[in-house]
Amino acid sequence: GEASLEGFDHYMLKEIYEQPEALRNAMRGRLDDENATAVFGGLNLTPQQLRTVERIILTGCGTSWHSALVGEYLIEDLARIPVNVEYASELRYRNPPIENNTLVFGITQSGETADTLAALRETKRKGHRALAVCNVVGSSIAQAADGGVYLHAGPEIGVASTKAFTSQCCVLAMLALYFGRLRHLSFESGKSIIEDLRQLPNAVQQALTCNEQVRDVAKKYQNASTVLYLGRQYNFPTALEGALKLKEISYIHAEGYPAAEMKHGPIALVDEETPSVFIIPRGTTYDKVMSNMEEVKARGGPVIALASEDDPQVRAVADDVIAVPQVTEFLQPIVNVVPLQLLSYHIALLRGCDVDKPRNLAKSVTVE
Ligand code: AGP
Q1: Ligand 1 atom having least distance to the Cα of 363
Q2: Cα(233)–Cα(281) distance, rounded to whole angstroms?
Q3: Mean pLDDT score, 296-324
Q4: Which of 124, 297, 357, 363 is catalytic?
Q5: Interface pTM (ipTM) of the complex?
Q6: Is position 219 annotated as part of the catalytic site?
Q7: pLDDT for the residue numbered 367
Q8: Among positive and negative, which fits the CA dihedral 336, 243, 343, 294?
């Protein structure tokens, strides 16, 4: 068939493990060392047209909306183009004023999500160019868009999206590099971004080795009724995605929040029975996340920390530490989401849930 389990118990687990390869496929032929940029065959817009883009709108649903949020950080950081992220289901009816020279990207694994398709059609109707970042070749959204980038992640069967998310983030990083190099980004910076991208599949491979340990953590927390996921900057969307994975397949209530936003309300949820997953790799907001983590600890909340390898400071505070390889900040969601995917997988299994076909959900949502 199109895809088989190849020895894995579930498609979701297989697809989690396919991520290093999916990332290699997303990057294949797209990194241009000579010009220190990325290249795309299907944008159908000239470099000159792309240079005049003054705003980018990224739209999608669910996990694809989360990768759009990562894309916002990436494109604003690396290309310095203002970005708005929109839920496709809201964008399609909101009729916001959109300036000229705005480029819209629909982000979608299936290419069949009704709201994303409608949002793209609606923005096109208003005269804006709409591109797709899509996995399924020839899908409705791929056809409706003016052009776009395929993920080449291979079929994703598990209802909970995994490899599509990391591939989308990777494609958005390459797009950010490309847009940056059409503008202000130096040759040297372009080269170092390419080097970082090249190390990514190995870092994800290494992150997968935490599987056994994550299973132990899952055993410990499998009976929780609420789990909080907290991170900042690039790891804020990672927190949202971790929470969505847990909700979808284990039916445990979970919330993702920017860690500092906790004190404005959600910290009231913290008690001995409510674990918080802190995403706290080394980086610009490390100290800030550390104090957010200490606040939760001080209120008796169990803390699971997702940290960089060899971090005694985190170990001193957290109840459980899952270590991931340290990568440059803008690629951290791709590495850090891996243990979160595994955590939800193991918790769902322990609770006897059908991980590949969770209740009430369909792989692609073709109704609005
Ligand atoms: C992800 O785990 C979900 N099943 C869901 O949120 C999904 O990402 C969303 O429906 C969008 O799908 P698409 O990427 O195929 O457009």
Answers
A1: 4
A2: 11
A3: 97
A4: 363
A5: 0.99
A6: no
A7: 87
A8: positive
